[in-house]
Each structure stands twice: as C-alpha cells, then as structure tokens.
C-alpha cells in the first residue's frame, strides 16, 4: 500500500485556527499510511499542493473574508495547480467571530476552481468576538470543537488510506 500525503494549510493570528489545524493533524496522524504535513499558509507553496493527495484548509474569517495570508497562499498556488488536482479530497475549518459564511464562500469557490471534492461540510467555530479587544485577544477553542476537528482530520486521513478518495 502506497503512503498518502495529507496537506494541512492554516493561518492564525490569535490562535483559534491554529488550534483547530493542530487538532485535525493530531487526528489524521493516528491513521497509518498517511503522511501529514502541517504548514502555515505563508510557508506553503505550489510544490506542497501538488505533492499532496488530500487537503485540509484552516483559516480565520477576518473582516467578513478569508484571512489575507490564506488568500495569499491560494493566489500563489492557484494557477500552478489548476487542472492538476481534479477530484482530490478536501475539508475546511473556519474560526469566525460571527458567522464565517463569507470565508466559507471564498474557500468553496477556490476549491471548485481547483475541482477538489469536498468530503464533509466545513466546520465553522464561532468565537462570538465582536469588540476590538475580543477580536484581538488570543482565542481558546473549546474541547468539543477541537474534538470535531480531530474527528474530521482522522476521517479524511482514513479515507485517503483506504483509497476511498
């Protein structure tokens, strides 16, 4: 059985998305036969995207949009990977202060352009941070939400290992 690679790309300013990405990576690492690569969006490039069999993207929603450095990752990788990822599986995690819907729409449009296959609904964790102080404060994602992130990472890795995706 050939080993599969799961690429987890994330951006985080206040720690919420980072905790979610790490929890998903922890879950994915429990699956034998799957190599998990966890990279910050600023460190990931086209070669990382092209070298992976599946993807998990984790981003905060900033100003009703996907975080700028996450968008930068997609901008740097999009055309190099276009028509080369068709059908590969992905999941997304969003840490939002309110609803996360605009970041979700942006991620889905990019994934559609890459012709990725979404294998589970995007998990949006809402921190309800609505004041400048709350928005800038370090986030602490709750155990139940982190457990969901772990489960999603594990499920994506299991699907890759079994050849389902």
UniProtKB/TrEMBL annotation:
<keyword id="KW-0288">FMN</keyword>
<dbReference type="InterPro" id="IPR008254">
    <property type="entry name" value="Flavodoxin/NO_synth"/>
</dbReference>
<dbReference type="InterPro" id="IPR005025">
    <property type="entry name" value="FMN_Rdtase-like_dom"/>
</dbReference>
<protein>
    <submittedName>
        <fullName>NAD(P)H-dependent oxidoreductase</fullName>
    </submittedName>
</protein>
<feature type="domain" description="Flavodoxin-like">
    <location>
        <begin position="6"/>
        <end position="165"/>
    </location>
</feature>
<dbReference type="InterPro" id="IPR029039">
    <property type="entry name" value="Flavoprotein-like_sf"/>
</dbReference>
<dbReference type="Pfam" id="PF03358">
    <property type="entry name" value="FMN_red"/>
</dbReference>
<keyword id="KW-0285">Flavoprotein</keyword>
């Amino acid at each position: 059985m050939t080993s599969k690679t799961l690429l987890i790309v994330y951006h985080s300013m206040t720690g919420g998305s980072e905790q979610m990405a790490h929890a998903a990576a922890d879950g994915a690492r429990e699956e034998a036969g799957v190599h998990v690569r966890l990279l910050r969006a600023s460190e990931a490039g086209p070669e990382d995207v092209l070298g992976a069999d599946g993807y998990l993207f984790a981003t905060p929603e900033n100003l009703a949009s996907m975080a700028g450095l996450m968008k930068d990752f997609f901008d740097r990788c999009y055309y190099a990977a276009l028509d080369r990822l068709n059908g590969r599986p992905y999941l997304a995690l969003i840490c939002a202060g309110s609803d996360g819907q605009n970041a979700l729409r942006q991620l889905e449009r990019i994934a559609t352009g890459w012709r990725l296959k979404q294998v589970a609904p995007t998990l949006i964790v809402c921190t309800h941070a609505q004041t400048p102080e709350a928005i800038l404060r370090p986030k602490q994602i709750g155990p139940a939400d982190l457990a969901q992130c772990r489960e999603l990472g594990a499920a994506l890795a299991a699907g890759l290992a079994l050849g389902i995706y």
